[in-house]
Amino acid sequence: MIPSVNESGSRTIGLLAYLYGPGKAEEHTDPHLVASFDGMSPDPGRDPNATLKNLQQLLDQPVMAVARHARPAKHVWHTSVRADPRDRVLSDEDWAVIARRIVAATGIDPGGGQPGCRWAAIRHADDHIHIVATLVTEDGHRPDDYRSGTRAQAEARLIEKDLGLRQVAPGDGTAAQRPTSAERHKAKRQGRERTAREELRETVRQAVAGATSEDEFFDRLADAGLLIRKRAAPSGDLLGYKVALPEDRNKDGQPVFYPGARLAPDLSLPRVRERFTGGTLREGERGPRPQDAAGARTGAPATARRQVASAAWRAVLVVEHGDDRVAAADIAAAGEVLDALAKTSAAHTRRELRDAATAFERASRSHIRAVRGHDRALRKAARDLVHGGPALGYGEDGATTAMAIDMLFFLITTTAHWHAKKGHAQQAAAARQAAAHLRSAYRAAAPAPLATLAQRGRRLPQPQQQRHAAQLREALPELAEQILSEPGWYALAATLADAQRAGHDPTALLARAARRRELDTAESVSDVLVWRLRRTANLPLETPERAPSATRNSPPTPRPSPRRAARTARSGNGTTGS
Q1: What is the rounded CA–CA span in Å between residue 18 and residue 31?
Q2: pTM strictly above 0.85
Q3: What pLDDT sits at residue 521?
Q4: Which strands, in side-by-side order, build the sheet including 227-232?
Q5: 8 A C-beta contact, residue 280 and residue 336
Q6: What CA–CA distances, in Å, run from 214 to 240, 270, 338?
């Protein structure tokens, strides 16, 4: 059950007209009163003799009794109380009880002989009610409604238990503002999947991902096609900003602007600036500006994804064992990596990665304030993703995408455990939701590169397969037989062959990979080991074919001279690397 308090109204009649009206898109059905301060207020919805004016005058009477100069400028208190979509349909009597408990808990009408405000609860849908009150008590004073939103949330948790409703994770004031019903209906009328607020929030998040300066941040916003207005002090110092979608207009045809802080608490200009401080990126690590990266360098998307995998793996240890404020910085930076990965992903993973980034946005903030600067590796990885450009869905890009998603899954799962230990229920739930989307994205990204590796593994000579199986049994005796029976064993065998060819000891590499984190809960132990080994040993998906007997002690294959290479190319026998 979610109460949403808004105290900014100044016209009682206007709010009542909306609540009793048809709604923005004819969504209001059977508007009627379910409860009121005196239990017998006029109901314009079901009483043909009652009017909106009757109800408005009754509610406003204590306000009008106060001297004009002493009346509050905005005297209308309003909250909606919405049930979870999976709850049963509540009766009018249930909603009346809920309304009385909410106004008592918030101080609007505390009861117990204390003077209260006048209020009415209107229902115009199965799943929610609206409570309207006027903020002057019967004895002419302002009610004690301090932090009424927080108090309403606390009472909602108790109501859920008492009425046997689905229990919603309690909030802590760090969530982004939800779209209003008017914004949702406007998006529906315009045929948009998401509201303007949600689209802007995602675009601004992607613009700040890995950015190193205000100029770069605002350049990215402009490149994304947003309208930008900056607020400056008389001295010229920048104080804030707001953004709008060019096509999102109000009734007067003007763009609808949203300040960064209204999109999310960490998108205000001061909070954005915090990401640029603390030595987040060293000068030599900043890379090219976006316009210089057009026509990205060969291999740049794959290289960036390798950096993501390495940075995510290190961040797992920080979140598990580091200082809380340092862990909070890495968690926030993980959100930037997800945003950048979603922005540059191939089509078959883009939707799940975007949904993962959107879900994790809630998990990236808590009351534990991040100490910036320690998140440098993750923020650099996000920057490299943006500058590396879009990745293809196959070859080295596809393999490193699967590797990055696999490592990010571990980081996000670790983040869910961290939030749960801290009692951050909403953040923990959001991280788990993001992990579920990452798992789906991995299932889309991994089959092609794993199939390529498995095909190579099956082609290995039998003695070499047996040798790698023996290495596996030596390194992981308790898991070896399970791994050998998995479909992914051949991909792991190919990876062990690549590692040995690159000069590594496969047995030591396996043991090291297993020590870094438990494997028992993995869906496919062989898959996890493939990505850990390929990340640790920096192995490309495709490697030059060598004789089966080649080992790490074999001399390297001689490179042809430039003249001979040219003759080979002219004769049509050359190959083109990807």
Answers
A1: 10
A2: no
A3: 61
A4: 227-232, 238-244, 258-259
A5: no
A6: 11, 11, 21
